Redox-sensing transcriptional repressor Rex
Amino acid sequence: MAEHDIPRATAKRLPIYYRYLNLLLDSGKTRVSSNELAEAVKFDAATIRRDFSYFGALGKRGYGYDVEALMNFFGRILDQDTLASVALIGVGNLGQALLNFNFHQSSNARISAAFDINEDIINTIQAGVPVYSMGDLEDQITAQRIEVAIVTVPSVAAQDLADRLAKAGIKGILNFTPLRLDVPASVRVQNVDLTNELQTLLYFINNVDLANE
Amino acid sequence: MAEHDIPRATAKRLPIYYRYLNLLLDSGKTRVSSNELAEAVKFDAATIRRDFSYFGALGKRGYGYDVEALMNFFGRILDQDTLASVALIGVGNLGQALLNFNFHQSSNARISAAFDINEDIINTIQAGVPVYSMGDLEDQITAQRIEVAIVTVPSVAAQDLADRLAKAGIKGILNFTPLRLDVPASVRVQNVDLTNELQTLLYFINNVDLANE
């Protein structure tokens, strides 16, 4: 089965598997069963076995999976060997935190350029990342071959920005604003809505009988 | 149908509906169709109509939904009239950003206490929120009747902290560490894994033929 035929839910679990396998390898473990994996990553073992089967990674009964082989395999799928340059637009509190964080646990992506309208920080380096003016957006995206943008601007500015990003050739947007962005089919948006996460959690703890997913 | 019988996916969309209805009301709009809602929140109209039907909120053909009535109704479900006190543990970069952010768009939750091991900030007020030592955790959770905790500590400290939180009576954890927490059934965990969001996005833009959700 070709890689691009795997279900979306499976694809979303790949980075989690990858990071856990990395951890196992660091701790000297050479093999792992789907039950052990299930215990660690909190998906059920049947889901894990099905996920792995999409990639033709079949464990051996009584042996399990070879940690290093599986990790290298997922690493290739996740493209861990190349480094993707990412732009961050909006260096407010959340933007600043993401610059400091800069996806340390990930080896395949790095924020290489930040953008803001605040003259006080334009042309400075924040947490190792240069901050450019908004006027430099298209030029830097082209020069640095940036394909992914993190949007941490105020909601009112988000749609105009998304239009500019799409025109500049951005393929993926990690959207931290509560606004649902309107983008062409060539752009994929991943929404990270922190208020929504909290409200959903509050809703669930106040409605404890709700069926689990 | 009782509120607690609604599907999890529907429950997760409620805060999004609620916020958008709020926006509509602010802009003076009194009614809205499921198609307009669909365009704005990017779920399809059939999904929206099905979601609303769980709550007995049925639009009238050719009229749509009454914005204010629907908003008040969802507000009650989401418990917008009460203010939930939330603890934040780990005032690093991300923790600090969340304190500053403090879920402004939400009217039903507020971080009321932060905790850290850093002596330099213990007993100070950060972004309006008092920072306590980790020794004060259980006392403050009890005193402030806190039921939800945001975990922004380093991964290595996360499981021990989750154990303490569960013992202290916390019912919900918003987990920003990549670690999958082991908690009793009485505690609900919502994972916000920023590295994972970015890696998933990278994966999808590199595998463009992947079926959309």
Q: What stands out?
A: Chain A has two domains: 8-78, 84-196. Chain A has eight helices and nine strands. Residues 8-26 of chain A form the longest helix (19 residues).
